[in-house]
Amino acid sequence: MVTSILDNLVPVQQSVRRPRPSDPWFDQECRDAKRLTRRLERAYSAASRRLSRSGSAAAAVAAAETAKAAWYDQRRRYRELSVRSGVR
User: Does residue 40 fall inside a structural domain?
Assistant: First the structure.
């Protein structure tokens, strides 16, 4: 029932996905640095959410600040690596 309603509102469409080869400069070192940067970004985001739920607990504030500093430092290193590798 729900499927038929959805099919009428939004008809099914076929799409073709053509994979694009990775850029030659984006090697394993770049991939690892990007993965670490995103992981630290998620850790900072989680720490910030815990901080907003807990109020102003000193441990939560310290954890959020530490996570933010680690993320910013890694993001800076990733950008330096991408410049060295030829992105910009």
Answer: yes
